[in-house]
Amino acid sequence: MRFEHVIEINSPRATLAVATPPFTREQLWRGLLIRVQTPQRFPMGPDSCVWRQTEPDVYARTLKFGAQVFTDEVVITPLQCLEFTPEKHDETTPIKLTIRIEAPQSGQMVLRFVYESVSELSPEEAYFSEYRHNAWLHHDRDMVRTLRQWLTDGDL
After folding, report:
1. If I label 133, which of 44, 78, 93, 140 is the partner at 20 to 30 A Cα–Cα?
2. Secondary structure of residue 12 in the 3-state scheme
3. What is the distance in angstroms between the CA of the first residue and the CA of the last residue of the chain?
């Protein structure tokens, strides 16, 4: 299973009517690192996150959502990419998330989100793929909306 989508961050067609200022790559990267280190600051984030750097640019995390505990590893390529690889939890297939900063043309910056299962989905899991895709898209849009608000508020 693979699901991919793109959210435009800066547009070369931006006008003065745009509600938020454009991001620099560094500001966007700082926001993405907040998602790694303190994801509880985002809507629908975990209740808590404990992380440690296991080697340069690699984080091991434990995330708590109520009574549920999840662990993952995040590998970063500074100012370019984050790769979230979860450990198996119960009987569900782990889904790897890659977030990439791309600049397809001058004045444009996008985030590319790629969700990939690390093994074959069970028929029961495959049945819910469209629901997952919609939830991921909604979650990623909320994250970008939050980053835009922090940028406007001067918090990045």
Report:
1. 78
2. coil
3. 34
CATH numeric code, 2-153: 3.30.530.20
Range with top average pLDDT, 60-74, 84-98, 109-123:
60-74
In the chain, alpha helices (H): 25-37, 123-127, 129-153
pLDDT grade for 91, boundaries at 50, 70 and 90: confident
- Cβ atoms of 63 and 49 within 8 Å: the answer is yes
- Alpha-carbon gap, residue 148 to 105, rounded angstroms: 21
Instruction: Locate 32 and state its tokens.
Output: 């993405």
Q: Compute the average pLDDT of residues 1-21.
A: 78
Using DSSP's 3-state secondary structure scheme, residue 71 falls into: strand
Kindly list the domain boundaries of the chain, sorted by start residue. 2-153
Greatest extent of the chain over all pairs of C-alpha atoms, in Å = 50
DSSP 41: G
**How far out from the chain centre does Cα 126 lie?**
22
* C-alpha torsion sign, points 129, 134, 135, 141: positive
